[in-house]
Amino acid sequence: MGCCRSSLRDGTHPEKPTEKAAGAQPNWPSFSVNPHQAAAPSSEAAAGGRGGEVAAFKEYSLAELSAATGGFARENIVSESGEKAPNFVYKGRLRSTRRAIAVKKFTKMAWPDSKQFAEEARGVGKLRHRRLANLIGYCCDGDERLLVAEFMPNDTLAKHLFHWENQTIEWAMRLRVSYHIAEALDYCCNEGRPLYHDLNAYRVLFDKNGDPRLSCFGLMKNSRDGKSYSTNLAYTPPEYLRNGRVTPDSVIFSFGTVLIDLLSGKRIPPSHALDMIRGNNIQLLMDSHLEGNYSTQEATALVDLASQCLQYEPRDRPDTKKLVTVLEPLETKSEAPSYEMLGIPKHEEEAAPPQRPPSAMAEACSRMDLTAIQQILVATHYRDDEGTNELSFQEWTQQMRDMLDARKRGDLAFRDKDFTAAIECYTKFVDVGTMVSPTVYARRSLCHLMCDQPDAALRDAMQAQCVYPDWPTAFYMQAVALSKLNMQSDAKDMLKEASELEEKKQNNSRGP
Q1: 490 is annotated as an active-site residue
Q2: Which residue of 265, 310, 439, 480 is 20 to 30 Å from 155, comparing CA positions?
Q3: Cα Rg of the chain, angstroms
Q4: How does it sit in the membrane (predicted)?
C-alpha cells in the first residue's frame, strides 16, 4: 500500500511602499498538496451571506505556498515593512484551485509559539465579509509563520491617492471607500475582533472589481510582542504613545487619519489637520486635484466626522456604528461600478486554458464503464510492459514457460470475460515472481472490480503503480476502485492525476 501517492498518501503598510503593479498576474508556478483542514468559515459565509464565495479557512503546507509564490521570489513581493518585526507580502497562485492569493511571510521566530500563532490566525480566519480581504489560511512549519489571504489585484488606497499616474480618485469613490471601510470595522467589532493594528491607506485594498476592502492582515500583530504601529509617531493615537496599547478607540483615531487622507489626497499629520479644521480652513485641507468637483455639504460631513475621530480623549470619539450611520447616506452613487470611478478596466474573467478532449480511458473511468475499460486493456495488450523485465537466457526454464502459459490462459479468460478464471490464472503468474507485469496487475484489478472486490482491485492497481510509477493506467484503475469504495473525493483527485500523467506522456512522445 505504501506505493500509492496523491490523496492516498498516509497589502501591509510599508515604511517605503513597494509601488509595483499588483494587478500583474504572471503564471506563477505552483503544485498541489493536501493540506489539513482547519477552522470552518463563519455561519454567515456558509449561509452565502455577506461573506460571498470565499475559500474555507485551512492550514497550508510550506511547500505549497513556496511553489505558489515561485519560491518566495523577490519579483512577487507586493509590500515589505517593519524594522522591529519585518515581514513581506507576496502574490501567488495555487495550482489546485488557480486562486490568486496574498501570502504574508514573517521573519523566523516572529511568533515563537506556533500554537499561539495558529490560534490567532484561526480567530481572524472565522471572519467573512465582502468588505474584507479575507484570511483563507495559515502555515506553521518549523520557524516559518505565514498568513494566506485573498489577493486584491488593484493596488492600495495609498497608491491611488498618493502615487497616481493616470487620474486621482473622484469624490464619490472617496466616499465609497470611507463607508466600506467603516462597514468592515463595524463587522469586525460586532464579531468580537475590534482591534485593528496600524490602520492606514496602505491597509485599504481594491479587488478585481475595484471595490475597496480592508486587509485582514491588520487584525493580527506583526509579531507576538511586536508593535501595533509601524507608521510615523505623528499618526499614532495619543494613548498608544502613553501606554503602548491598542484599544477599539485607537482604531477609530486611525480611521480618522484615513478620512484626512481621503479629503486631502496627501499625508497630513492629524494635529495639523485639526488645526486647519479649527481654523475653518477646509478649502485648504481639500485635495486640489479634485478641482472643486465635490459637494461642500458632503465634504463638511466628512470633515466633522474626521474631527470627532481624532479627538485626544478616546471617550470623545464615535464608535463604529456611528461611523456607518454618518457615512451611509453620503454614498449617493451606489449603483456606479467601482472600476469606473477608480478609472481601471472592467474585470474580465480569466479565460480557462484550452482543454484536450479526455482520452478513451479517462472517459471510461469517469463513467465507471468497466466493460469499456476491459476492451481498452485488451486492445492495449502488453505494450506498456516494455522495459519492465530483462530476462537472461538461464531464466527461460520450464517454470518460466509455465508462468507465461498461465498468463496466456489468463489473457484468454480476460478477453472472454471469464473474470474468475482470469483472476486464478493471473494469480499463478504473479505468485511465481520471476517476472513483474503492470498490465497483469491492471487486468486483475479490473477482474476484481467485475467480481465486486474493490479492496483487492485497489491493491492491484497500487501494485501496478509500484512496478511502473508514472503509468496513467495504474492511476485510472485506482480512481475506479476508490469510487467503488465510496471515496469520491480521493477518486476525483486520482482521476485528475491520471489525466495529467497521460497528457505529460503524450507531450513527451511528440517531442520538441
Answers
A1: no
A2: 310
A3: 31
A4: Lipid-anchor
φ and ψ at residue 279, rounded to 5 degrees: -90, 10
Q: Report the alpha-carbon distance of residue 440 to residue 421 in Å, rounded.
A: 14
Residue listed under C-alpha cell 468559515: 41
pLDDT value of position 417: 94
Which residues are CB-neighbours of 113 under 8 A, at least 6 positions away?
Answer: 224
Q: Give the distance from CA 394 to its chain's centroid.
A: 58
CA atoms within 13 A on the CB side of 82: 24
Q: What are phi and psi of 168, to 5 degrees?
A: -80, 170
Locate 309 and state its grid cell: 475621530
Domains in the chain, CATH or no CATH each: 11-150 (3.30.200.20), 169-200+229-342 (1.10.510.10), 360-510 (1.25.40.10)
Q: Residue 37 — φ and ψ, nearest 5°?
A: -70, 145
Name every residue whose Cβ is closer than 8 Å to that of residue 42 and which is 6 or more positions away in sequence: 51, 126, 127, 128, 191
> What is the residue-wise DSSP string for 257-291?
HHHHHHHHSS---HHHHHHHHHTT-HHHHS-GGGT
Grid coordinates standing for 363?
A: 472517459
Q: How far is CA 342 from the centre of its chain?
A: 26
Catalytic one of 155, 186, 198, 211: 198
- Cβ atoms of 153 and 25 within 8 Å: the answer is yes
> How far lies 94's CA from each of 57, 61, 72, in Å?
14, 12, 13
- pLDDT means per 10 residues, the chain with 512 residues, are 41 38 33 33 37 77 87 85 65 83 86 90 94 95 92 93 87 96 97 92 94 94 64 80 87 96 93 88 89 93 96 95 96 88 77 65 88 90 71 56 86 94 92 84 95 94 88 92 88 86 75 49
Percentages of the chain per state (helix, strand, coil), in multiples of 5: 50, 10, 40
| CA 409 to chain CA mean position, Å | 53
Of 132, 129, 127, nearest to 214 (Cα)?
A: 132
